[in-house]
Amino acid sequence: MTGKRRGLSYDVLQVRDITGPRTIARLWCAQCGDTLDITLNSAHHADGVERMARAKGWECDKNRPRRTICPDCKARPSPPIKPAAPNPIKPTIRKEMPMTTPALRPATPDERMRIRHKLDGVFDDAKGMYLDSFSDQRVAEELKLPRKMIEQIREAAYGPIRTDPEIEQLRTDIASLVSQASTLANRLADVEKRYLAR
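RE: above sequence
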């Protein structure tokens, strides 16, 4: 998959599926990170992408990525504002704050581009697996980004991992051991020949 960087709120990508290669505009929800793919014809226009996204229920501004919102986030009601009440004096009691996992912020267009560029080099799309002992965690560490963000963008771009990396590592180790055993057997045969020739 190859991407072209535009100064717009969506990315233009070349993708392949069962119908063959096609060009799409991929929009990203600024609140939840959900994506919308719109198939483009050869002469696409940004206003047309904006109109098609709105027809599918998205809020879209072709020049402002932060104003691109999916239908689910648009429908989510905002919390009601409570009227200000007088604050009676209360004794302060320290409460332990519950441990919560912070919500994952959506990736910026620059972060998405960096992640996709890295994944293009270390992920085998045909096999559905990472190459050279890479993983979501290792990509996250190298790019200094959250692992969950890498996982979301990898799944959106390539789908889920179809091969277990541990099984692939075991296969590599077994092939290496078989090769070493073959080398040792050949060396043993050479030593036996020399010994029997005496």
